[in-house]
Amino acid sequence: MIVNSILDTIGRTPLLFIPLRGGEVSLYLKLEMFNPCGSMKDRMALAMINRLPTSSKEETIDIVESSSGNTATALAMIAAARKIRFTALMDSHASLDKILTIRAFGSNVRVVGSGDGVLETDIRDREAMRISIEEGAYWTEQHNNPANAAGYAELAAELLDDLGATITHLVCAIGTGGSLCGSARQLRMHIPELQVIGVEPVGSIIFGGEGRDYLQSGTGTPEGADVGLVIDYDVIDAGRKVSDDMAFSTCHYLAQQHGLLVGGSTGGAIYEALSVAQHAPIGSRIVTIACDSGTKYLDSVFNRDWLSIHGIQIVDIEEHFGGLLRTRQLH
């Protein structure tokens, strides 16, 4: 396939079938790490740029966004391809690899916060607002931008192309809400009875409950932060919480039994999808979005020393689910 721009490679990602013992229930993972910047955020970042105000489409436009990494990386790639100036506002604990990637695309990174326990998401957003007002940059404001959810309409179309109207459950991580709510809204037009389940870390407040620190990156809403307007509770049937222990244990299971590296938020979503599969009716087809690649978390989720420092316990997921998962077969 010959393309005219790197942006033409966004989307049409593969769907991976995970065998469950007995074949009575099917689990499919939409592998969004095959997008050019390695995450599903490429889709929504392009949608936000494509929907910039008409008066702001000159080549000299400046944009700014507050991001923990994946959205900023995607925006930096698109900004380079579209000749747009972009500034990313990132946490003091953002990984060096993500910062260097954004700078490699020619974008600017401003690190905000000091890691002293102050809510850095709020600091990032306040700084983005200040830059938009005082410096005239356009704040894409992913948590409240309707283009966020609209950016996943094509993802839903791809799922329908691959599986038709046979999908029974959509179980996905929820952060800004764009991927889950945008995909669910489109799928429901063809599958009215679809069960939609949002998954957040224990400690996130999207579905209520007590807020506390969590280590799953790029998902949930921490205590003290506002839940974004992109989240549409009307399309979500249930909200579930998954601990860091179980999310990261699922990441280790997928890496060692399926050769698949995924990030912590995806681990949490897949853990919940497996929980749903335990009790789902025969013939159920469960889909979850594998948000990004675990290669971005080799120094955390897959680092035994880091896990030990943070008190994370890795458990045997196959044993935990009591025979649901088919034992790996040698070929």
UniProtKB/TrEMBL annotation:
Record-linked PROSITE patterns: CYS_SYNTHASE (PS00901)
Transmembrane region(s): none
GO terms, biological process: cysteine biosynthetic process from serine
Database matches in SUPFAM superfamilies: Tryptophan synthase beta subunit-like PLP-dependent enzymes (SSF53686)
Domain Tryptophan synthase beta chain-like PALP: 7-292
Taxonomic superkingdom: Bacteria
Molecular functions (GO terms): transferase activity, transferring alkyl or aryl (other than methyl) groups
CDD domains, per database record: CBS_like
Cofactor: pyridoxal 5'-phosphate
Keyword Secreted: no
UniProt entry keywords in alphabetical sequence: Pyridoxal phosphate
Entry keyword Ribonucleoprotein: no
Protein name: Cysteine synthase family protein
